[in-house]
Amino acid sequence: MSSKDARGDKGASTGKRLGGNKKMSGAKLSAGSKGTGGGKKAAGRPHRGGKTKSQASSRQRTGRPSHRGASFDASALEGAEFIEVSNVALPLDVGLESPASEVNRPTPVPLSTETNHPAPATPAASPAPAEGSHAESLSRAAIASALGVAPEDVASFSLVKRSVDARKKSNVHFNATYAVHLAQGVAYDALSPARGVNVRAYDPPAPLAIPDLRSLATSSDGRIVVAGTGPAGLFCALYLAEAGLRPLVVERGAAVDERTAAIESFNAGGPLDAAANVQFGEGGAGTFSDGKLTTGTKSPHIRHVLEAFVQAGAPDEILWQAKPHIGTDKLPAVVKSIRERIISAGGEVRFLTRLADIELSDGAVCSVALEDSRTGAREVVEASRVIVACGHSARDIFELARDRGFALERKPFSMGVRIEHPQTLINRAQYGAAAKHAALGAADYKMAVRVPARANGTRPDAASENATRGVYTFCMCPGGEVVAAASEEGGVVVNGMSRFARDGENSNSALLADVRPDDLPGNDVMEGVRLQREVEHAAFELARRNGGVPYAAPAQTVGDFLVGATSSSGQAEGKQPGGTVAAASEARRRTVVPGPHRRRTVAPEPYSRLVVHPSYPRGVVWCDLRECLPEFICGALAQGLPLLDAKLHGFADPTAVLTGPETRSSSPIRMVRGENFQARLASDSPDSDEEPATRVYPCGEGAGYAGGIMSAAVDGLRVAEAIAAEFSSR
Q1: 495 φ, ψ (degrees, to nearest 5)
Q2: Distances (CA, A) of 718 to 143, 291, 304
Q3: How far apart, in whole angstroms, are the C-alpha atoms of residue 339 and residue 256?
Q4: Burial level of 437, CB count in 10 A (0-12/13-18/19+)?
Q5: Helix H or strand E encompassing 476
Q6: Which of 259, 327, 538, 623 could form a disulfide linkage to 276, CB 3.0–4.6 angstroms apart?
Q7: Which residues does 606 contact at the CB level (< 8 Å), separation at least 6?
Q8: DSSP secondary structure code for residue 133 in this structure
Q9: Burial of 56 by CB count in 10 Å (0-12 exposed, 13-18 middle, 19+ buried)?
Q10: To the nearest 5 percent, what fractions of the chain are helix, strand and coil?
Q11: For residue 288, what are the CA distances in angstroms to 86, 223, 332?
């Protein structure tokens, strides 16, 4: 995402916050009973230079250990009431007690009573463990050691972020960032931070200000139509509704309760419901794929999205976890709560309603046709703006946009399989002897390598700048399941999910290879969609030919895949394929892994005794995945597996299971938009500096501007801000 896409918030002078309020920003900090200046007495006093008797004695007690940093500039902390201390090493036992509590849950404030709120003066962070608890004592001691002071000099503290540091398997621990208030009389220039510990003035996150635009939305304006209730559509609609613009939100799929029932029926062997499945319905595809809230996007909106999720019922801990997730079991209630908030703010939400057409007048939208997903009945609605947030699987929307003259372009996407391992293998590989510690939970991973590329699956591409192809893991689901994610008749698609507890037997992740625009023949912008469909239908037929029921998925062990063998065990019922495991193990022992300076051979190891029970709900059929996936994808995965195994020991274990195909990781098409977020027309001159004025706003992952729940939600907020700015400029 470009730096322009990651711009900050620009709220009006009068507005309300999305998901946060004074209660959130003023969370109570943990105050120690031994502190000399905790509570209200110390809270309002900035710490300036000057050594006190208490400070001098503290220096005598703590000294300046050899591990202390070489220098520390306290002048940058002048006047700060709270300091942010990062890279604080914590023992794992701290994680046995949760630092979150109900005081951290934001409560929505009615629009009519909200005025202008400055940035909070106290940390918008999670409360520390209960005073006097073992975790509180361990945290206080770790903070004191990091700062080079005595524990009693730490008056209060609040957790901002915490992650697992497993770089050294002999010393697995937590790494934390805290907002800290020192005891009265402890001067900043007397701190002696440990090497690697960073200290700066605490800068609390600013709330999101939503302007009140009700007086600017005239009766002559048509409806603002938001198509799609994935993260992009939901957060765009929430902002617009709370700004008083009364959006009409349409979703081709069902409400989350009906959708959940349809998915459960399909998983049990029932027919596919094209209007209610893993791809379509309230909350979008992310509702049934774990709810991971990690992103590479840098935006202040990330905090706003997290706060809104917490206000909607998500666990408080997503505010301080380095890798937050909600869980498929909790997400339905969360998205339902966001929908109810949109309605209470004046928006309208219609399910089983598809965006069927967009009519333009003088190059700008004037109306839309909405179609009942069950009956096909149509209704024309006057529209002043349309937000296209339909997700990457609404392929008919791509065709509609092309036919109505919007500019579309091919974009890179990915294709591959789901790889499943026993979760115990991943835990041991990531955490070593600490794997069974109760505070760690299920381990995850994220890996990427480059392999020699082949253009169009035939010839080496060494002559071009694209001489390598990326192979990587994506959407890793610890303790999760492989999901039946089909949305079209006669096609098999897989995805992954985890519940909040992440306590399932297996882990799984997408194992993908890049598909570049030049991998596709011709110039048709829809060629990527055609390839996806071709693979999905080939997988459906491959499983059927080998004895599977409809929508069973083709599967293969890693060992069989690497030697090009097909198992003979038929449809899997928790069994391992027979006849090829020994050969696969031997092939793995001979695998040569290229390193940065030399080639090394993977050390021989015995055949793994870990047995993977495939979790795909419609059943898997042991097949040769090369019969449904493109050769250049299979070749890249085969080259990448041993390289990934070198990063995570056991990843290419011959008994690991590959289930395919994973084709919907991202959109193969981008709707081109301008800096004002409005869609360009294909007839626009590519050299023109004029911004488009279609009043159609491509938004989120399906339009090609996001790659997950968080980035899609952030994009939805940015589009909403752009629309609000247009109204404010009237």
Answers
A1: -150, -170
A2: 37, 21, 12
A3: 10
A4: middle
A5: strand 468-477
A6: 259
A7: 585
A8: S
A9: exposed
A10: 30, 25, 45
A11: 34, 30, 9
396-401 long-range Cβ contacts below 8 angstroms, 24+ apart? 396/354, 397/227, 397/355, 397/702, 398/525, 398/526, 398/529, 398/669, 399/526, 400/355, 400/356, 400/357, 400/358, 401/358, 401/671, 401/679
**Phi-psi bin for 401: left (phi > 0), alpha (psi -120 to 50), beta?**
alpha
Structure token digits, residue 29: 């900090």
Contact assessment for residue 82 and residue 208, using Cβ atoms and an 8 Å cutoff: no
Please say whether the beta carbons of 392 and 663 come within 8 A.
no
Query: Of 253, 261, 283, 260, nearest to 352 (Cα)?
Result: 253
**Token digits of residue 24:** 């959130």
Neighbour count for residue 184 (Cβ, 10 Å): 18
Per residue in 614-648, pLDDT (tens digit) is 999 999 999 999 999 999 999 999 999 999 999 99
Contact status, residue 394 vs residue 129, Cβ threshold 8 Å? no
Regions in the chain scoring below 50 on pLDDT:
1-17, 19-66, 100-121, 457-458, 461-463, 568-607
Per-residue confidence (pLDDT) for residue 97, from 0 to 100: 80
Where do the DSSP E strands lie in 264-372?
Answer: 348-351, 353-361, 364-372
Token pair 């510690």 is found at 437
Query: Cβ distance 477 to 450 under 8 Å?
Result: no
Comparing CA positions, the residue from 699, 633, 713, 619 lying closest to residue 667 is 699
Q: Where do we find the tokens 């200046």? A: 37
Return the pLDDT at 25.
36
Contact 15, 135 (CB under 8 A): no
Take residue 330 and report the two structure tokens written for it.
């909790």
Q: State residue 657's pLDDT score.
A: 97
Q: Which amino acid is at 363?
A: G
The encoded tokens of residue 605 equal 């190891």
Give the span between the Cα atoms of 63 and 192, in whole angstroms.
9
Query: What pTM value is reported for the model?
Result: 0.84
End-to-end CA distance of the chain: 30
Which two structure tokens, joined as six digits, stand for 62?
A: 């703590």
d(CA 401, CA 522): 20
Counting DSSP H helices and E strands in the chain, the numbers are: 15, 31
Nearest Cα to Cα of residue 356 among 409, 392, 399: 399
Round to whole Å and give the CA distance between 286 and 267. 17
Query: 14: which strand partners?
Result: none
Sole residue written with tokens 């022992």: 589
Reported as a single tens digit per residue, the pLDDT across 114-148 is 333 344 445 655 656 666 688 899 999 999 999 99
On whether the CB atoms of residues 411 and 517 are closer than 8 A, the answer is: yes
Cis peptide bond prior to 661, omega within 30° of 0: yes
- The crossing angle, in degrees rounded to 10, of helices 331-344 and 231-242 is 30
Neighbours of 362 (CB within 10 A): 6
